Structures are given as structure tokens and as C-alpha cells.
């Protein structure tokens, strides 16, 4: 289970545009969100959760701290772990435009251990939407495998519902027995739950108030 | 009177014939006013309202006899309450308290609590010279009387009373009183339900197999076993352990164990079942 989102810095989306940004009026359909993780803490990624905001397609690339990933000139390679994942089935319409998405590590194309940076490339080919981005982006590291502390043991050992095929002849109807026994249980539970904290205040030892028997506590 | 006069004087300058009507209005206006006033002053309104509320709380099957006994108790508690001698008065108070606590079933929690508090107040008033309060003796007598009406066996009742009784000289606070009374009623219902369970287990033959009984009681004890979790989880756990399939398996397994057929009679079954219940009753200390 997730223990909580990993600390990271999410930069605001940068639109990729061909030509001069200021003079060219055409709206770009591609944006890039860079997520920078603290340099000393490479992340074993378990899950990426975000809320979509009118993005149609998503590509995710990661930079890992692996010796195989280092290119010839020493820089780290970017590895694609999700390519053109469709968030909106029809980019001109609203479907999926504001949904929450969750990407697990087993859905990704490559291994995402020891990640140092994540880049999300957003594409929105439709001219209908003025702005598109991803909101509430969170990365979850791989948590511990232990169960929660207050998890009752019997829930993890649930026996499957078995229908006993051939019951003995003398076994009484289980349904009726179960009804009655459950009512007995409820009555006992009720009396256990309604216990009073009030005390009469008896200080005797076995019915005797002899001064030699009384204790100081 | 002032309002009648106002009504009379206003139309008077208008027409001559108008004089007749205000007078009639004045006379007619006085009578319904005085009827309502009379009811209010004599306390009949509040008394009838109380009676109606009691009927609604208790939902008796025979409302008329219920109301009759209610008004009879009211008469007894009125002028004669403090006048009778102490023992006679105490007996009456006990009877009245018994009647109060029997009004509502213990599952109607608010109504039951109200009735218990009224019974407590009724028992607390102990006559002119004595100090008010419920002492252990009258509390224990009330508990015994409650348990007498049910069909619980003597042993069972005495083992419960041993846990919740108070000594004669002790002063019983309201919480302890309520807990004791509630335990008695729940025990009576428990005995009735255990009886029904025995009827199911014996399949109409009158005698149930000992192994089956022990298997069922063992499952119940297991489900009642101390668990520290919060209420919803405890209910889920009990529900899963006491479901028909688990019980069927337990009973089936029990029947496969030994070939000797011994039976458990009703008294023994009730004793064992109520022992499970009484174990959960917190003793008063």
C-alpha cells in the first residue's frame, strides 16, 4: 500500500512550439511537465496518480540512476515507460477530460526503480480546448509489504464459502440454527456494551471489613 | 371580559341592529373559553397527554386494560402515597416500580430508560421520615420479582443475581440500578431464545444430540471471544463465524466424531448457554 506521495517538485507545463513563441499565434498541442526529485533520493516508483485536465494523450519518460542508462557523453538517457497513453478517447469531447488516473508500475513499459526525474509529455490535438494540463500529480514510492497494524487476522484467513454437500441425517437446519444463535450473540453483545462504569464502592475483603485485612491501596 | 366589551362596543355606533349580535358573540365567546380553561386548570389536559404518551411508548396489545391500570396506579399514588404505613407503602412502591419497568421492551432504549428512571424515583421516595434513595434491599427484591415472571430456571437467575445484587445497606446509584434491571430483562429474553434454539436443535423429537449442542455452543463461545477491535469489525467477525455454512460444518464435524449417541436435555443446554451470557455480565463492585 502506498505510504504517501514522494516529495518532488512539479514544474508548470511548458508548451513546445515550432517557431518563435511570441509571434506565432498557433496554439501548440504539446506540453511538457518536468518532475524533479530530490537528488539524493532516487525513487522506486510504484504508482503515478493525477487528475486530467483536457489532455488527450500522455507519454511518460523517466531518467534512472543506472549504469546502463548513462550515454556516451556521460548524460543520463531518458527512457520511455509509457507511450501515447490515451486519456481522452475522443479528444474533441469531454469524455475523460477531468478524470483521475492511476498508473501502476506493472503498466509501464520499463522498470521504474531508482528514478531521478520524470517527464510527462502531454498532447492535445484538438483545437477546442484552450489549455490542457495535468493536476494533482503525485508519485508514490514502493511501500512496505507489511499489513496495517489494526488489520484483524481472521479477515486475511477467510475460508471460502463452502456448501457442505452431504450433511448427516441428524443435522438440524443450519439456517434456523444460525438465526437463533446470532440473536443470542446480539443479546450478549448488548449486555457487554451496556456495562456501567458506576461503582458501589465496596472495599471489603470477602465480605469482611476487619481492619487487619484492609490494604492501603 | 375586556375583549368581550371591545367586541360589543365597536359595531355599536354603526347600526342599531348591530347591538344584538355582539351580545350573542360575547356570550358565545365566554363558554368555549371557560371549557378550555377548566380543563387546563384541573390538570386534565396534562394528565390525558401523559397517558397518551405512555400508551405510545409502551404500545400495549390491549390499550384499554393498559390505560385502566395506568389510571388505577395514578389514583393510588395520589392522595394515599405517603399516608400508608411504611411496609405497605413500600410494597405498593415496589409494585408500581415493577409496572413501570415492564412497560417498554428493553430494545426500545429511550422508552426503557425513561421508565427505569421513573421506577427509580418511585422507589427513592421512602416515606416522610426516611431519607430518599434506593437501598440494596429493595433493589434486590425488584430484581427477584422481575426474574420471577420469566421462565428462567432458578439456578440461572441466582447466578445472575449473585453478580448484580447489592447488599441491603448499600445505596444504589441510578447507573447500577439501570444496569441491573436491564440485565434481568435481557437474561429473560436470552433464556427464551435459547429455548427456541433447543427446539430447533432437537428437530421436534424433544431431545437433542449432545455433540450437536456442544458444537453450536462452542461456536457461539468462539464468536463471543474477546476481540479488541471496534464494533463494526466485531460484528463482521461474528457474522462470518455464525453463518449457516460455518455452523453446518461444525455440526457435521461433531456428528462424525463419536459414534456413541448421547443426548443433552433442555435444562443442561439452558444452563450452558446462559453461562456464556452471564460470563459477560460485569459484576458490581
Automatic annotation (TrEMBL), chain A:
One of its GO terms (cellular component) is nucleoplasm. It comes from the Eukaryota. This is Nicolin-1. The lineage of its organism: Eukaryota, Metazoa, Chordata, Craniata, Vertebrata.
From TrEMBL, chain B:
Residues 90-282 form the Tubulin polyglutamylase complex subunit 1-like C-terminal domain. Residues 1-32 are annotated as: Disordered. Signal peptide: none annotated. SUPFAM superfamilies: Dimerization-anchoring domain of cAMP-dependent PK regulatory subunit. CDD domains: DD_TPGS1. It comes from the Eukaryota. One of its GO terms (molecular function) is microtubule binding. It holds the Pfam family TPGS1_C. This is Tubulin polyglutamylase complex subunit 1-like C-terminal domain-containing protein. It comes from Mauremys mutica (yellowpond turtle). The lineage of its organism: Eukaryota, Metazoa, Chordata, Craniata, Vertebrata.
Amino acid at each position: 500500500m502506498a505510504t504517501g506521495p514522494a516529495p518532488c517538485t512539479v514544474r508548470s507545463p511548458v508548451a513546445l512550439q515550432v517557431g518563435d513563441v511570441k509571434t506565432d499565434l498557433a496554439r501548440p498541442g504539446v506540453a511538457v511537465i518536468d518532475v524533479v526529485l530530490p537528488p539524493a533520493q532516487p525513487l522506486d516508483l510504484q504508482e503515478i496518480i493525477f487528475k486530467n485536465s483536457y489532455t488527450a494523450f500522455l507519454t511518460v519518460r523517466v531518467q534512472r540512476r543506472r549504469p546502463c542508462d548513462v550515454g556516451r557523453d556521460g548524460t543520463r538517457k531518458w527512457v520511455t515507460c509509457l507511450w501515447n497513453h490515451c486519456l481522452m478517447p475522443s479528444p474533441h469531447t469531454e469524455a475523460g477530460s477531468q478524470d483521475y488516473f492511476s498508473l501502476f508500475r506493472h503498466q509501464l513499459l520499463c522498470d521504474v526503480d531508482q528514478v531521478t526525474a520524470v517527464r510527462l509529455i502531454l498532447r492535445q490535438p484538438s483545437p477546442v480546448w484552450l489549455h490542457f494540463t495535468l493536476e494533482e500529480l503525485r508519485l508514490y514510492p514502493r511501500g512496505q509489504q507489511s499489513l496495517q497494524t489494526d488489520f484483524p487476522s481472521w479477515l486475511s484467513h477467510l475460508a471460502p464459502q463452502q456448501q457442505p454437500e452431504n450433511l448427516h441425517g441428524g443435522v438440524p437446519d443450519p439456517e434456523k440454527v444460525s438465526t437463533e444463535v446470532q440473536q443470542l450473540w446480539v443479546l450478549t453483545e448488548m449486555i457487554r456494551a451496556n456495562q456501567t462504569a458506576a461503582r458501589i464502592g465496596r472495599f471489603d475483603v470477602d465480605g469482611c471489613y476487619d481492619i487487619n485485612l484492609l490494604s492501603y491501596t | 371580559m375586556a375583549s368581550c366589551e371591545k367586541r360589543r362596543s365597536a359595531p355599536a355606533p354603526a347600526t342599531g341592529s348591530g347591538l344584538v349580535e355582539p351580545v350573542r358573540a360575547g356570550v358565545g365567546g365566554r363558554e368555549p373559553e371557560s371549557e378550555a380553561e377548566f380543563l387546563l386548570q384541573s390538570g386534565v389536559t396534562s394528565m390525558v397527554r401523559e397517558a397518551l404518551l405512555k400508551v405510545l411508548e409502551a404500545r400495549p396489545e390491549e390499550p384499554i386494560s393498559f390505560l385502566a391500570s395506568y389510571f388505577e396506579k395514578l389514583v393510588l399514588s395520589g392522595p394515599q402515597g405517603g399516608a400508608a404505613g411504611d411496609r405497605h407503602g413500600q410494597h405498593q412502591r415496589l409494585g408500581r416500580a415493577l409496572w413501570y419497568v415492564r412497560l417498554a421492551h428493553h430494545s426500545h432504549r429511550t422508552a426503557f430508560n425513561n421508565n427505569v428512571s421513573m421506577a427509580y424515583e418511585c422507589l427513592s421516595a421512602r416515606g416522610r421520615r426516611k431519607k430518599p434513595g434506593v437501598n440494596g434491599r429493595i433493589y434486590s427484591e425488584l430484581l427477584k420479582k422481575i426474574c420471577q415472571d420469566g421462565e428462567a430456571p432458578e439456578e440461572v437467575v441466582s447466578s445472575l443475581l449473585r453478580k448484580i445484587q447489592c447488599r441491603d445497606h448499600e445505596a444504589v446509584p441510578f447507573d447500577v440500578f439501570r444496569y441491573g434491571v436491564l440485565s434481568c430483562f435481557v437474561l429473560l429474553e436470552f433464556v427464551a431464545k435459547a429455548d427456541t434454539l433447543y427446539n430447533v436443535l432437537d428437530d421436534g423429537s424433544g431431545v437433542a444430540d449432545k455433540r450437536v449442542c456442544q458444537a453450536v455452543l462452542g461456536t457461539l463461545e468462539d464468536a463471543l471471544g474477546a476481540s479488541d477491535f471496534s464494533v463494526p469489525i466485531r460484528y463482521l467477525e461474528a457474522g462470518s463465524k455464525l453463518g449457516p455454512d460455518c455452523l453446518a460444518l461444525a455440526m457435521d464435524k461433531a456428528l462424525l466424531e463419536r459414534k456413541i449417541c448421547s443426548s443433552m436435555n433442555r435444562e443442561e443446554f439452558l444452563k450452558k448457554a446462559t453461562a456464556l451470557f452471564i460470563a459477560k455480565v460485569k459484576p458490581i463492585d
